[in-house]
Write a structure and sequence with these properties.
This protein is an alpha/beta fold and 360 residues long. The chain binds phosphoenolpyruvate and manganese (II) ion.
Length: 360
Protein backbone atom coordinates (compact mmCIF):
# COMPACT_ATOMS: atom_id res chain seq x y z
CA UNK A 1 0.00 0.00 0.00
CA UNK A 2 1.30 3.48 -0.75
CA UNK A 3 0.22 6.74 0.74
CA UNK A 4 -2.30 8.47 -1.46
CA UNK A 5 -4.44 11.53 -0.83
CA UNK A 6 -7.50 9.43 -1.79
CA UNK A 7 -7.16 7.55 1.50
CA UNK A 8 -8.86 10.57 3.08
CA UNK A 9 -11.72 10.91 0.59
CA UNK A 10 -14.32 9.20 2.74
CA UNK A 11 -13.40 11.34 5.73
CA UNK A 12 -13.41 14.58 3.76
CA UNK A 13 -16.83 13.65 2.38
CA UNK A 14 -18.30 14.19 5.85
CA UNK A 15 -17.30 17.84 5.56
CA UNK A 16 -16.82 18.10 9.32
CA UNK A 17 -15.41 21.17 11.04
CA UNK A 18 -14.05 19.03 13.86
CA UNK A 19 -12.43 15.59 14.16
CA UNK A 20 -14.88 12.78 13.42
CA UNK A 21 -16.45 11.46 16.62
CA UNK A 22 -17.66 7.90 17.01
CA UNK A 23 -19.51 7.42 20.30
CA UNK A 24 -21.77 4.90 21.95
CA UNK A 25 -21.70 2.05 24.41
CA UNK A 26 -19.05 -0.62 24.63
CA UNK A 27 -21.86 -3.15 24.15
CA UNK A 28 -25.41 -2.99 22.90
CA UNK A 29 -27.36 -4.27 25.92
CA UNK A 30 -31.06 -3.70 25.20
CA UNK A 31 -33.06 -1.92 22.53
CA UNK A 32 -33.97 0.85 24.97
CA UNK A 33 -30.36 1.32 25.98
CA UNK A 34 -29.18 1.68 22.37
CA UNK A 35 -32.01 4.08 21.44
CA UNK A 36 -31.63 6.13 24.60
CA UNK A 37 -27.89 6.63 24.02
CA UNK A 38 -28.40 7.38 20.32
CA UNK A 39 -30.94 10.09 21.12
CA UNK A 40 -28.60 11.64 23.69
CA UNK A 41 -25.80 11.69 21.13
CA UNK A 42 -27.68 12.85 18.08
CA UNK A 43 -27.25 16.59 18.63
CA UNK A 44 -23.62 16.35 19.74
CA UNK A 45 -20.45 16.27 17.63
CA UNK A 46 -20.82 12.50 17.31
CA UNK A 47 -21.57 11.46 13.73
CA UNK A 48 -21.34 7.70 14.20
CA UNK A 49 -23.02 5.53 16.84
CA UNK A 50 -20.88 2.62 17.99
CA UNK A 51 -22.02 -0.48 19.88
CA UNK A 52 -20.39 -3.88 20.24
CA UNK A 53 -22.74 -6.70 19.25
CA UNK A 54 -20.27 -9.56 19.55
CA UNK A 55 -17.81 -8.92 22.38
CA UNK A 56 -14.39 -10.53 22.36
CA UNK A 57 -13.71 -11.20 26.02
CA UNK A 58 -10.28 -12.02 27.31
CA UNK A 59 -11.77 -14.57 29.68
CA UNK A 60 -15.03 -16.51 29.32
CA UNK A 61 -17.94 -15.87 31.64
CA UNK A 62 -18.23 -12.14 30.95
CA UNK A 63 -21.00 -10.62 28.83
CA UNK A 64 -20.32 -11.77 25.28
CA UNK A 65 -22.72 -9.48 23.49
CA UNK A 66 -26.36 -9.75 22.44
CA UNK A 67 -25.56 -11.05 18.97
CA UNK A 68 -27.34 -10.40 15.68
CA UNK A 69 -30.49 -9.20 17.46
CA UNK A 70 -28.66 -5.99 18.38
CA UNK A 71 -28.08 -5.11 14.73
CA UNK A 72 -31.82 -4.36 14.45
CA UNK A 73 -31.51 -1.92 17.36
CA UNK A 74 -28.67 -0.13 15.59
CA UNK A 75 -30.77 0.09 12.42
CA UNK A 76 -33.63 1.54 14.39
CA UNK A 77 -31.30 4.04 16.04
CA UNK A 78 -30.12 5.11 12.59
CA UNK A 79 -33.71 5.57 11.39
CA UNK A 80 -34.66 7.60 14.43
CA UNK A 81 -31.55 9.79 14.73
CA UNK A 82 -29.86 9.84 11.34
CA UNK A 83 -26.57 8.79 12.94
CA UNK A 84 -24.38 6.33 11.09
CA UNK A 85 -23.79 3.03 12.85
CA UNK A 86 -20.63 1.10 13.70
CA UNK A 87 -19.86 -2.30 15.15
CA UNK A 88 -17.00 -4.77 15.51
CA UNK A 89 -16.78 -7.75 13.17
CA UNK A 90 -14.53 -10.71 13.89
CA UNK A 91 -15.44 -13.32 11.27
CA UNK A 92 -17.20 -13.79 7.94
CA UNK A 93 -20.59 -14.42 9.55
CA UNK A 94 -20.38 -11.16 11.49
CA UNK A 95 -19.54 -9.38 8.24
CA UNK A 96 -22.47 -10.91 6.39
CA UNK A 97 -24.91 -10.01 9.16
CA UNK A 98 -23.55 -6.49 9.58
CA UNK A 99 -23.81 -5.84 5.84
CA UNK A 100 -27.34 -7.26 5.76
CA UNK A 101 -28.28 -4.76 8.44
CA UNK A 102 -26.63 -1.90 6.59
CA UNK A 103 -24.08 -1.07 9.29
CA UNK A 104 -22.04 1.86 7.95
CA UNK A 105 -18.72 1.43 9.73
CA UNK A 106 -17.19 -1.94 10.56
CA UNK A 107 -14.18 -2.18 12.77
CA UNK A 108 -11.73 -4.98 13.36
CA UNK A 109 -10.93 -5.40 17.05
CA UNK A 110 -7.49 -5.54 18.61
CA UNK A 111 -7.74 -9.28 19.28
CA UNK A 112 -8.56 -9.94 15.61
CA UNK A 113 -5.90 -7.68 14.10
CA UNK A 114 -3.25 -9.95 15.63
CA UNK A 115 -4.35 -12.85 13.43
CA UNK A 116 -3.65 -12.67 9.68
CA UNK A 117 -6.04 -15.62 9.21
CA UNK A 118 -8.93 -13.77 10.79
CA UNK A 119 -8.10 -10.52 9.04
CA UNK A 120 -7.96 -12.34 5.69
CA UNK A 121 -11.31 -14.01 6.35
CA UNK A 122 -12.85 -10.62 7.11
CA UNK A 123 -11.18 -9.00 4.09
CA UNK A 124 -12.52 -11.76 1.79
CA UNK A 125 -16.02 -11.39 3.21
CA UNK A 126 -15.89 -7.62 2.73
CA UNK A 127 -14.31 -7.68 -0.73
CA UNK A 128 -15.21 -4.55 -2.67
CA UNK A 129 -17.49 -3.10 -0.01
CA UNK A 130 -18.19 0.63 0.00
CA UNK A 131 -18.61 0.58 3.79
CA UNK A 132 -16.02 2.26 6.00
CA UNK A 133 -13.63 -0.25 7.59
CA UNK A 134 -11.45 0.70 10.56
CA UNK A 135 -8.62 -1.41 11.90
CA UNK A 136 -7.75 -1.26 15.58
CA UNK A 137 -4.12 -1.75 16.47
CA UNK A 138 -3.20 -5.30 17.48
CA UNK A 139 -2.94 -5.94 21.23
CA UNK A 140 0.84 -6.29 20.91
CA UNK A 141 2.97 -3.30 19.92
CA UNK A 142 3.72 -4.41 16.36
CA UNK A 143 3.34 -1.81 13.62
CA UNK A 144 3.96 -4.32 10.81
CA UNK A 145 1.06 -6.48 11.98
CA UNK A 146 -1.22 -3.45 12.12
CA UNK A 147 -0.20 -2.29 8.65
CA UNK A 148 -0.43 -5.85 7.35
CA UNK A 149 -4.11 -5.92 8.30
CA UNK A 150 -4.72 -2.61 6.51
CA UNK A 151 -2.94 -3.98 3.43
CA UNK A 152 -5.09 -7.12 3.38
CA UNK A 153 -8.22 -4.94 3.33
CA UNK A 154 -6.74 -2.62 0.73
CA UNK A 155 -5.96 -5.61 -1.48
CA UNK A 156 -9.59 -6.68 -1.12
CA UNK A 157 -10.62 -3.48 -2.93
CA UNK A 158 -11.84 -1.71 0.16
CA UNK A 159 -11.25 1.99 -0.25
CA UNK A 160 -12.75 3.60 2.80
CA UNK A 161 -10.09 2.62 5.30
CA UNK A 162 -8.83 4.02 8.57
CA UNK A 163 -7.07 2.95 11.73
CA UNK A 164 -7.93 3.17 15.41
CA UNK A 165 -5.26 3.53 18.08
CA UNK A 166 -6.49 1.77 21.25
CA UNK A 167 -3.20 1.14 23.03
CA UNK A 168 -1.14 -1.99 23.64
CA UNK A 169 -1.04 -4.65 26.34
CA UNK A 170 1.87 -4.72 28.71
CA UNK A 171 2.77 -7.13 31.44
CA UNK A 172 3.97 -4.21 33.54
CA UNK A 173 1.25 -2.39 35.47
CA UNK A 174 0.98 1.20 34.25
CA UNK A 175 -1.54 3.98 34.76
CA UNK A 176 -3.19 2.83 31.54
CA UNK A 177 -5.27 -0.23 30.77
CA UNK A 178 -3.43 -0.36 27.45
CA UNK A 179 -0.19 1.55 27.05
CA UNK A 180 -0.48 4.22 24.35
CA UNK A 181 3.06 3.76 22.92
CA UNK A 182 2.48 6.96 20.96
CA UNK A 183 5.63 6.37 18.92
CA UNK A 184 3.84 3.56 17.03
CA UNK A 185 0.92 5.59 15.65
CA UNK A 186 3.35 8.47 15.07
CA UNK A 187 5.47 6.23 12.87
CA UNK A 188 2.37 4.98 11.08
CA UNK A 189 1.30 8.58 10.52
CA UNK A 190 4.72 9.49 9.14
CA UNK A 191 4.51 6.63 6.65
CA UNK A 192 0.82 7.08 5.75
CA UNK A 193 -0.05 10.70 6.53
CA UNK A 194 -3.32 10.39 4.60
CA UNK A 195 -4.63 7.25 6.27
CA UNK A 196 -7.27 8.50 8.73
CA UNK A 197 -6.14 7.93 12.32
CA UNK A 198 -8.65 7.77 15.15
CA UNK A 199 -7.96 7.60 18.88
CA UNK A 200 -9.88 5.28 21.18
CA UNK A 201 -9.06 6.88 24.54
CA UNK A 202 -11.50 4.59 26.38
CA UNK A 203 -9.56 1.36 25.89
CA UNK A 204 -6.22 3.08 26.45
CA UNK A 205 -7.38 4.67 29.70
CA UNK A 206 -9.57 1.96 31.19
CA UNK A 207 -10.88 4.79 33.42
CA UNK A 208 -12.72 8.05 32.95
CA UNK A 209 -10.41 10.67 34.43
CA UNK A 210 -7.68 10.64 31.77
CA UNK A 211 -9.86 10.48 28.66
CA UNK A 212 -9.72 14.22 28.10
CA UNK A 213 -5.91 14.41 28.23
CA UNK A 214 -5.56 11.48 25.84
CA UNK A 215 -7.93 13.16 23.39
CA UNK A 216 -5.99 16.43 23.60
CA UNK A 217 -2.67 14.69 22.94
CA UNK A 218 -4.21 12.97 19.91
CA UNK A 219 -5.52 16.23 18.50
CA UNK A 220 -2.13 17.85 19.09
CA UNK A 221 -0.67 15.00 17.04
CA UNK A 222 -3.19 15.77 14.25
CA UNK A 223 -5.34 12.69 14.69
CA UNK A 224 -8.46 12.72 12.55
CA UNK A 225 -11.01 11.45 15.01
CA UNK A 226 -12.04 10.00 18.34
CA UNK A 227 -13.95 6.87 19.31
CA UNK A 228 -15.27 7.27 22.83
CA UNK A 229 -17.31 4.73 24.79
CA UNK A 230 -20.43 6.51 25.96
CA UNK A 231 -23.32 5.21 28.09
CA UNK A 232 -26.21 6.92 29.91
CA UNK A 233 -25.41 4.91 33.05
CA UNK A 234 -21.72 4.05 32.80
CA UNK A 235 -21.43 2.49 36.26
CA UNK A 236 -24.03 -0.11 35.38
CA UNK A 237 -22.79 -0.88 31.88
CA UNK A 238 -22.57 -4.60 31.14
CA UNK A 239 -18.98 -4.27 29.91
CA UNK A 240 -16.13 -1.80 30.42
CA UNK A 241 -18.12 0.10 33.06
CA UNK A 242 -15.12 1.94 34.51
CA UNK A 243 -14.11 3.64 31.28
CA UNK A 244 -17.43 4.75 29.82
CA UNK A 245 -18.60 8.35 30.08
CA UNK A 246 -22.01 9.97 29.83
CA UNK A 247 -23.06 11.74 26.63
CA UNK A 248 -23.15 15.00 28.62
CA UNK A 249 -19.50 14.51 29.58
CA UNK A 250 -18.61 13.88 25.95
CA UNK A 251 -20.17 17.23 25.05
CA UNK A 252 -18.06 18.97 27.73
CA UNK A 253 -14.93 17.25 26.50
CA UNK A 254 -15.58 18.35 22.94
CA UNK A 255 -16.14 21.92 24.13
CA UNK A 256 -12.90 21.98 26.11
CA UNK A 257 -10.62 20.32 23.57
CA UNK A 258 -8.40 22.65 21.61
CA UNK A 259 -8.96 21.76 17.98
CA UNK A 260 -6.58 23.26 15.50
CA UNK A 261 -7.99 24.13 12.14
CA UNK A 262 -5.89 24.86 9.09
CA UNK A 263 -7.59 27.93 7.66
CA UNK A 264 -4.64 29.32 5.68
CA UNK A 265 -1.00 28.51 4.98
CA UNK A 266 0.10 30.27 8.17
CA UNK A 267 -2.26 28.05 10.21
CA UNK A 268 -1.05 25.01 8.29
CA UNK A 269 2.53 25.87 9.17
CA UNK A 270 1.63 26.31 12.85
CA UNK A 271 -0.26 23.01 12.90
CA UNK A 272 2.61 21.13 11.33
CA UNK A 273 5.01 22.70 13.82
CA UNK A 274 2.73 21.85 16.76
CA UNK A 275 2.36 18.26 15.61
CA UNK A 276 6.13 17.86 15.44
CA UNK A 277 6.54 19.50 18.85
CA UNK A 278 4.03 17.09 20.35
CA UNK A 279 6.00 14.21 18.80
CA UNK A 280 9.11 15.59 20.53
CA UNK A 281 7.22 15.84 23.84
CA UNK A 282 6.16 12.20 23.54
CA UNK A 283 9.74 11.10 22.89
CA UNK A 284 11.17 13.27 25.71
CA UNK A 285 8.68 11.73 28.09
CA UNK A 286 9.89 8.28 27.04
CA UNK A 287 13.54 9.33 27.44
CA UNK A 288 12.95 10.37 31.04
CA UNK A 289 11.02 7.19 31.80
CA UNK A 290 13.77 5.08 30.26
CA UNK A 291 16.45 6.92 32.25
CA UNK A 292 14.42 6.38 35.42
CA UNK A 293 14.25 2.65 34.65
CA UNK A 294 18.01 2.54 34.03
CA UNK A 295 18.68 4.11 37.42
CA UNK A 296 16.45 1.55 39.15
CA UNK A 297 18.62 -1.21 37.65
CA UNK A 298 21.73 0.69 38.75
CA UNK A 299 20.26 0.78 42.27
CA UNK A 300 19.96 -3.01 42.23
CA UNK A 301 23.58 -3.32 41.13
CA UNK A 302 24.48 -0.94 43.97
CA UNK A 303 22.74 -3.22 46.46
CA UNK A 304 24.62 -6.27 45.12
CA UNK A 305 27.95 -4.45 45.25
CA UNK A 306 27.24 -3.44 48.83
CA UNK A 307 26.52 -7.04 49.80
CA UNK A 308 29.76 -8.24 48.20
CA UNK A 309 31.70 -5.18 49.29
CA UNK A 310 32.83 -4.37 45.74
CA UNK A 311 33.96 -0.97 44.46
CA UNK A 312 31.36 1.11 42.64
CA UNK A 313 33.50 2.15 39.70
CA UNK A 314 34.47 -0.68 37.39
CA UNK A 315 36.45 0.90 34.60
CA UNK A 316 36.55 -2.04 32.21
CA UNK A 317 32.79 -2.47 32.17
CA UNK A 318 32.32 1.27 31.73
CA UNK A 319 34.66 1.40 28.73
CA UNK A 320 32.82 -1.51 27.13
CA UNK A 321 29.52 0.32 27.47
CA UNK A 322 30.95 3.48 25.99
CA UNK A 323 32.48 1.69 23.00
CA UNK A 324 29.18 -0.06 22.25
CA UNK A 325 27.13 3.10 22.57
CA UNK A 326 29.45 5.11 20.31
CA UNK A 327 28.99 2.46 17.61
CA UNK A 328 25.22 2.37 18.06
CA UNK A 329 25.21 6.15 18.09
CA UNK A 330 26.90 6.20 14.72
CA UNK A 331 24.22 3.92 13.30
CA UNK A 332 21.64 6.41 14.56
CA UNK A 333 23.39 9.51 13.16
CA UNK A 334 24.59 10.66 16.59
CA UNK A 335 28.08 12.13 16.87
CA UNK A 336 30.68 10.48 19.06
CA UNK A 337 31.06 13.66 21.05
CA UNK A 338 27.35 13.77 21.81
CA UNK A 339 27.18 10.10 22.84
CA UNK A 340 30.19 10.56 25.09
CA UNK A 341 28.69 13.56 26.80
CA UNK A 342 25.32 11.90 27.31
CA UNK A 343 26.79 8.69 28.68
CA UNK A 344 29.20 10.46 31.00
CA UNK A 345 26.22 12.23 32.51
CA UNK A 346 24.21 9.01 32.76
CA UNK A 347 27.16 7.19 34.29
CA UNK A 348 27.64 9.95 36.85
CA UNK A 349 23.99 9.74 37.86
CA UNK A 350 24.30 5.94 38.23
CA UNK A 351 27.33 6.38 40.46
CA UNK A 352 25.46 8.93 42.58
CA UNK A 353 22.58 6.48 42.93
CA UNK A 354 24.88 3.62 43.90
CA UNK A 355 26.80 5.76 46.38
CA UNK A 356 23.56 6.62 48.10
CA UNK A 357 22.72 2.92 48.37
CA UNK A 358 26.16 1.85 49.59
CA UNK A 359 26.38 4.59 52.18
CA UNK A 360 22.93 3.92 53.59
C1 LIG B 1 -14.39 -2.34 21.97
O1 LIG B 1 -14.24 -1.40 21.18
O2 LIG B 1 -15.31 -2.42 22.78
C2 LIG B 1 -13.33 -3.38 22.02
C3 LIG B 1 -13.57 -4.62 22.41
O3 LIG B 1 -12.15 -2.88 21.68
P1 LIG B 1 -10.68 -3.53 21.50
O4 LIG B 1 -10.78 -4.44 20.32
O5 LIG B 1 -9.88 -2.30 21.26
O6 LIG B 1 -10.34 -4.22 22.79
MN1 LIG C 1 -15.16 -1.82 25.29
Amino acid sequence: MENKKELRNWLNAFGLEHPIVIAGPCSAETEDQVLNIAHQLKDTDATVLRAGIWKPRTRPGNFEGVGALGLKWLQKAKEETGMLTATEVANATHVRLALEHDIDVLWIGARSTVSPFIVQEIADALNGTDKIVLVKNPVNPDLALWLGAVERLHSANIEKLGVIHRGFSTYEKTRYRNNPEWQIPIELQNRFPDLPLILDPSHIAGRRDIIFDLCQTALDLSYDGLMVETHFDPDNAWSDAKQQIKPTRLVEIMEDLKIRKATDTEAEYRNALNTLRTQIDVIDHQLIETLGKRMKVADKIGALKKEKNVAILQTRRWNEILGKMILEGEQNQLSEEFVLRIFKAIHQESINHQEKIINN
